[in-house]
Amino acid sequence: MGEVKLFRTWSSPYALRIVWALKLKGIVYETIYEDLANKSSLLLEYNPVHKKVPVLLHNRTPICESLVILEYIDETWNTTARFLPEDPLARATARFWAKFNDDRVNHHFSCAINRNSYVTTYKCN
């Protein structure tokens, strides 16, 4: 299915969900680790809007944002078990909880782990 590369950090929970998805689907990929304090020119080129990981590069086309990447993987490599249910309501419910996790759970986890660096950027309650 072509060349697959994943730009990530070792600690990003958003990037780790992509690692798990690629492994579940049996997709062979190359990992490119990013130093977020010194972002590579490739990361900035492939994600010019947010300038963050993860970025999936498939056949030289970048896909950004972890939930978008998960849907792309699931739809592109659809010969194995699907991540989301077939039923539209069940799929919508799964997407709701995934977004809730991103907005609430992961945000507060990141605040707790990186208290000093997030205080100036994000509101941590």
Descriptive notes:
It is a single chain. The chain has 125 residues and is α+β, with helices and mostly antiparallel strands. Helix content is 49%, strand content 14%. The longest helix has 26 residues, at 88-113. The chain is globular, with a radius of gyration of 15 Å. The termini are far apart. 15% of the residues are buried. The mean pLDDT is 87.
What spatial form do the alpha-carbon principal axes imply?
globular
Q: What is the gyration radius calculated from CA atoms?
A: 15 Å
What summary fits the major beta sheet? 4 strands, mixed
H-E order: EHEHEEHHH
The helix count comes to 5
Quaternary class: single chain
Could you name the ranges where pLDDT drops below 50 across 5 or more consecutive residues? none
What is the tally of beta strands?
4
Strand content: 5-15%
Helix percentage range: 40-55%
Q: Give the distance, in angstroms, between the N- and C-terminal Cα atoms.
A: 44 Å
- The structure class reads alpha+beta
Task: List the strand order in the largest sheet.
Answer: 2-1-3-4
Based on the model shown, name its key terms.
125 residues, alpha+beta, four-stranded mixed sheet, 5 helices, 4 strands, globular
In short:
With 125 residues, the protein is α+β, with helices and mostly antiparallel strands. Helix content is 49%, strand content 14%.
Fold topology:
Layout: E1 4-8, H1 13-25, E2 30-33, H2 41-46, E3 55-58, E4 61-64, H3 66-76, H4 88-113, H5 115-119
Parallel strand pairs: 1-2
Antiparallel strand pairs: 1-3, 3-4
Helix pairs in contact: 1-3
